[in-house]
């Protein structure tokens, strides 16, 4: 028999095996220690914990399953190992420089960008997804609305179909960044 602990991660309650709990707690503590500003650390850790809870929920086969070491290792694999010395980048992803900050590249997903929206965030979401200036997308939609009128219908359909980028992980995926712990920290500090 193994000892289990009831814990809240990202506002969601989980039952975690004792050894898995201490492994995850140690991982999160080591990551928090890499952030020098304590106010920033608190904000970043909230986002990282939300991502941890999201990964654990995806890995659970049923709602009352006990989180074990295998699932915790999956979380760590998704978020990347913490290098206390140099904060090196996670294996399995390509890195590139954006806004003078290195981000780890991941899969790009389409969401509505409600941070830079004018109406519903459809144009800004498409612009980030396609990697072009949002002004171009907005001009195309405006011109197509006057010329054909179907652009308004297309916009409304996209508004319904495209999910909103709510969490930091979704905002990272929209930009083509992997939702790793290090990327969450960089994104949160850049977009205060």
Walk me through this protein's architecture:
It is a single chain. This protein has 192 residues and is mostly helical. It folds into two domains: 4-82 and 93-107 and 168-190; 122-161, no CATH class. It has helices at 18-33, 38-59, 69-79, 122-130, 134-147, 150-161, 168-174, 181-190, and strands at residues 4-9, 12-17, 95-98, 101-104. Strands 1-2 form a two-stranded antiparallel sheet. Strands 3-4 form a two-stranded antiparallel ribbon. β3 and β4 form a beta hairpin. It is elongated.
Give me the secondary-structure category.
Answer: mainly alpha
Radius of gyration: 19 Å
Mean pLDDT: 76
Give the strand order, joined by hyphens, for the main sheet: 1-2
In the predicted model, the low-confidence regions spanning at least 5 consecutive residues are 84-100
Question: How is the secondary structure organized here?
Answer:
Blueprint: E1 4-9, E2 12-17, H1 18-33, H2 38-59, H3 69-79, E3 95-98, E4 101-104, H4 122-130, H5 134-147, H6 150-161, H7 168-174, H8 181-190
Antiparallel strand pairs: 1-2, 3-4
Helix pairs in contact: 1-3, 2-3, 2-8, 4-5, 5-6
Which features characterize this protein?
192 residues; mainly alpha; elongated
Give a concise summary:
The chain is mostly helical. It contains eight helices and four strands, in the order ββαααββααααα. It has two domains: 4-82 and 93-107 and 168-190; 122-161, no CATH class.
């Amino acid at each position: 028999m193994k000892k289990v602990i009831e814990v809240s991660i990202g506002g969601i309650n989980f039952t975690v095996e004792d050894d898995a709990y201490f492994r995850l707690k140690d991982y999160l503590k080591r990551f928090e220690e890499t952030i020098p500003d304590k106010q920033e650390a608190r904000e970043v850790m909230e986002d990282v914990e939300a991502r941890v809870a999201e990964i654990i929920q995806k890995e659970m086969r049923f709602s009352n399953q006990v989180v074990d070491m295998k699932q915790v290792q999956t979380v760590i694999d998704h978020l990347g190992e913490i290098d206390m010395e140099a904060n090196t980048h996670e294996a399995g992803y390509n890195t590139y420089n954006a806004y003078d900050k290195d981000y780890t590249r991941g899969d790009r997903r389409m969401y509505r960008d409600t941070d830079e929206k004018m109406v519903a965030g459809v144009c800004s979401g498409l612009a980030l997804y396609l990697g072009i200036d949002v002004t171009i997308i907005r001009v195309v939609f405006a011109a197509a609305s006057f010329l054909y009128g179907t652009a308004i219908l297309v916009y409304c359909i996209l508004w319904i179909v495209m999910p909103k980028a709510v969490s930091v992980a979704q905002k990272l995926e929209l930009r083509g960044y992997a939702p790793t712990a290090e990327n969450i920290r960089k994104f949160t500090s850049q977009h205060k």
